[in-house]
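Side project, low priority. Logging it here so it doesn't get lost.
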Amino acid sequence: MGLLCPLEGTYGAPPVPPTGSPGAVEAALGALAALFPAGLFGDLLPPLVLRHQLYSIVSDRTAVDRHLDRLRADGRIRLLHVGLGTDTLGVVSMDSYREKVGPPPGQWDSPTPHKGQWDPPTPPIRDNGTPQPPHKG
């Protein structure tokens, strides 16, 4: 199953994975991304899924947070603070992000970026959904 693909389990596709599994989180991401009204924005924005939308589909919030953190660490998604609240996070596929937004200023002429090059460091998410403070060692 690919990231941000249509929800499986309908029309003869394989069944939806059990809630709380990484597959369930990715299926929910795909279903919600497919609902993003790209035409409203002139197809200029990548599909954006809000973390609380995932919570409404996948009941295990800890599993959602852990899988999002893993996807972010792997360079497959970007987590964005969208300004709707202190803990409101948007989730965007890095492929879609690169396609619609492009690299940061000053990197237009650079070679193909390596995994995670455009991602700013984002702290891991605690089980209660708040960002973890940086490790001081």
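Brief comment: Helices lie at 22-34, 51-57, 61-73, 94-100.
Revisit when time allows.
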